[in-house]
Write a structure and sequence with these properties.
This protein is an alpha+beta fold and 315 residues long. The protein folds into two domains: 117 residues, Lipocalin (Beta Barrel), CATH 2.40.128; 161 residues, Intergrase catalytic core (hpI Integrase, Chain A, Orthogonal Bundle), CATH 1.10.443.10. The strands form five sheets. The protein has a four-stranded mixed sheet, with no helix packed on it. Strands 5-6-7-8 form a four-stranded antiparallel sheet, with no helix packed on it. A three-stranded antiparallel sheet has the order 9-10-11, with no helix packed on it. A hairpin with a 5-residue loop joins β7 and β8. The longest helix has 24 residues. The C terminus is likely disordered.
Length: 315
């Protein structure tokens, strides 16, 4: 049980037992926050959280710790030490706990009280709340699988339970032409998938036969395979909320995975196998990090020009 939490500077290697708290996202920064936790037995350990450090607070009333960084607002369960919720790109800047044990979080203009959940329920209708809490594990698993494997939307919608191998951390996908390929998946994405499967049967009334579809929806208390269109709409909905009204498609998430894989390995043949392509030319169309670098360079050059124009001449 966690009884205390504080932000610290990066500890030297081996000083604490460390645990990394991260969320798979193409918009993550390269900054980190280190939080020292103290348990009831006075043992200490360190959590590493994505983003620059803002604040940390512990509520004994809810047995939760909130860690606020520039990238995320994390909620940590004091008993398990696990992330139970998180909010992406929070606009908050300070965090504390009220005398009543509620979290109080503020930005430059507003003060918000957070109790048992990070979700702003006032922004959701009663029906929207029902759908949000019913589908959040499924939706997170879908987004995570796109970013952790690079598969196509139809390959995801056609996944069956028999296609999942959690021991090897692989999935078997049905490619164009009916070919079945087994590909590796980022381990954290498989973890998100496993969390969804723990609630799949009870929440969607879905069976557990090997041939059953992995991702389902519920209509009239009956489970049906989720359609490509529904997946596309869901991805656009979440990415629009995350990116300030700029939505993304599943195909764009596939491109994101490709870019990350090429930057990591720079192996076009590995990329071909992962994407299910037989031509290096086709695979190369999905990955052009040099173009992105050129784009960023052009932006920086434009910024330099603007700064130069704003600099007064000296005699």
């Amino acid at each position: 049980m966690i009884i205390n939490a504080e932000i610290i500077n990066q500890p030297y290697s081996g000083r604490y037992k460390e645990r990394i708290y991260d969320v798979l996202s193409p918009w993550n920064s390269q900054s980190w926050t280190w939080v020292k936790f103290e348990n009831e037995d006075f043992s200490e350990w360190c959590g590493e959280f994505r983003g620059l450090p803002w604040a940390v607070a512990l509520s004994k009333k809810y047995n939760n710790v909130l860690v606020l960084t520039s990238d995320y607002l994390f909620k940590i369960d004091c008993v398990s030490g696990e992330i139970t919720e998180y909010e992406s790109q929070p606009q908050y800047h300070s965090l504390t706990v009220s005398p009543l044990g509620d979290f109080v979080i503020t930005d430059y203009y507003d003060i918000e009280i957070i109790k048992s959940t990070l979700v702003d329920e006032n922004k959701l209708s009663a029906q929207q709340k029902v759908y949000f809490f019913r589908d959040k594990e499924r939706d997170i698993a879908i987004l995570s699988l796109f970013l952790g494997s690079g598969i196509r939307v139809n390959e995801l919608s056609n996944l069956r339970l028999r296609n999942l191998d959690f021991e090897e951390k692989t999935i078997s996908v049905l490619r164009k032409g009916g070919k079945l390929d087994t590909i590796p998946v980022v381990p954290e994405s498989m973890d998100d998938l496993k969390k969804y499967l723990t609630i799949r049967s009870t929440r969607y009334h879905a069976t557990k036969e090997d041939f059953d579809y992995v991702f389902v929806k519920k209509s009239n208390n009956i489970a049906y395979p989720i359609s490509n269109r529904a997946i596309e709409d869901m991805v656009k909905k979440y990415t629009k909320a995350f990116k300030s009204n700029k939505s993304m498609s599943p195909h764009k998430l596939r491109h994101t995975y490709v870019t990350n894989l090429m930057e990591q390995e720079n192996d076009i043949h590995l990329l071909m196998r992962q994407l299910g392509h037989t031509s290096t030319t086709t695979a190369a169309l999905y990955s052009n990090p040099e173009q992105e670098k050129a784009k960023q360079a052009a932006i920086k050059m434009g910024n330099r020009r603007e700064q130069s124009n704003n600099t007064p001449f000296h005699s």
